[in-house]
Amino acid sequence: MSLRFVRTLLIAGGIIVVALLVAACGSEDASPTASGGSASAGDIVVSDAWTRPMTASMAGMSMPSGTPGSMDMGNMTMPSASPMAMDMSVTDAVYFTIKNNGKTDDHLLSAASDVAGSTEMHQSTLANGISSMKPISSVDVPAGGSVSFDPGNYHVMLIGLHRDLNVGDQFDLTLTFKQAGAVKVSVEVRPN
Amino acid sequence: MHWQRRTTLMIGIAALLVVLAGGSAWAAGLMPFANRDTTVHGTAYNANTVAPEFTLDAAGNKPVSLSDYHGDVVMLYFGYTYCPDICPTTLATLARARQALGPKADKVQVIMITVDPQRDTPDRLNAYVQKFDPSFIGLSGSLDQIKQVASEYGIYFQAQKPNANGGYAVDHTAAVIAIDGQGKQRLLESYGTTSDQFTADIKTLLR
Q1: Residue B6: is its pLDDT beyond 90?
Q2: Cβ of B131 and A54 within 8 Å?
């Protein structure tokens, strides 16, 4: 057996190992990318806007959203001292990606949609396995950068749906940016 | 001279074989290890941890107990219907995991216990969870009952202060607890567990 043969064998073996590794790793990230609504204003592009299907009124709660609560509470206690009207609405969350193609930072200031009684920007956080959610007043979109509203992080919360959101439905969501102004994007209702 | 070169050669070939064999085994065997049934994704509880029994209210205030599902794998989740992000993401992932089981799906029961019994009536809760999978059930009860069950399962929850509209969020442990057919508390599945990982773990527990 010549040295040259061994060298060839070594190189071939190396190539096989690398090929196997690449194949094994490549199969790991097969995340589907579905296309959602896309819209832009100024340097801001909002794309891939989606939400989950949800029923506006659920069984056992025929009260229209916004009506002051008058449910029989039995002997249950409220979580706080506030005996205020209960919000009996149904919620959902909208996700999308914001890209800032400009040279100046921009800021998402608000979100609005007429499918819901009110709309808030929220961020979910996870600490020590405990999930929490807090309202946020503004989200920075750095120059040349992008921000994703994804499950488990930023989301626009639709509070008090006015109608059912069924798979395939679309509705408008208006995002207002400090620099770019209003961007009206079409939100797609996707299957769970 | 000649024997020296021969020895070097032999060592080279041996090294090559080791690299090839090890590399191939690693590439073919270890990389997709997470999807194999020989291991579990979730964190295992101590052996023989008996899942605490509970009896709470399902749709129509019908009492339902954990022991009603003896023989099935129960995926237990604590959440609430006003939770728009973490809870629907978890329920949708569990629904996909169950669908991927085919006929074995009949041996799996997903149960969501509300951490917001003030707003989540049994009927509202069940309408909500069934949006994700018609087989899912939701259980509610008095705040004291829920506190008791949650503490027995090591689940934390705390309602935040209501906002100006009276709405409030509830902080809660976002994990899923997997209970096997013998009523043993087997796995704690953290938030972010994929449907493939849930499916693999359920298959392991069904064996």
Answers
A1: no
A2: yes
Residue with tokens 């010549």: A2
Residue ranges making up the domain that contains A131: 36-54+88-192
**Do B16 and A13 make contact, defined as CB atoms within 8 angstroms?**
yes
The length of chain A is 192
Number of domains in chain A: 1
Window B:32-51, CB contacts with A under 8 Å: 32
Q: Is A83 inside a domain boundary? A: no
- pTM exceeding the 0.90 threshold for the entire prediction: no
Task: Give the tens place of pLDDT for each residue, A104-154.
Answer: 999 999 999 999 999 999 999 999 999 999 999 999 999 999 999 999 999
Note the pLDDT tens digit of each residue in B129-142: 999 999 999 999 99
Identify the residue among A52, A78, A131 best suited for mutation to test binding to B, counting B beta carbons within 10 A and taking the highest.
A131
User: Using CB atoms, which residue from B19, B91, B117 is nearest to A17?
Assistant: B19
Q: Are residues B95 and B65 in the same domain?
A: yes
Whether B142 and A87 lie within 8 Å, measured CB to CB = no
> Using the beta-carbon criterion (under 8 Å), do A24 and B172 form an inter-chain contact?
no
- Find the CATH number of the domain harbouring B103: 3.40.30.10
Based on the domain organization, do B147 and B181 belong to the same domain? yes
Can you tell me the distance from the alpha carbon of B67 to that of B72, in angstroms, rounded to the nearest whole number? 10
DSSP letter assigned to residue A84? P
Give the tokens for residue B54.
Answer: 């509970």
The answer to whether A190 and A167 are in contact (CB under 8 A) is yes
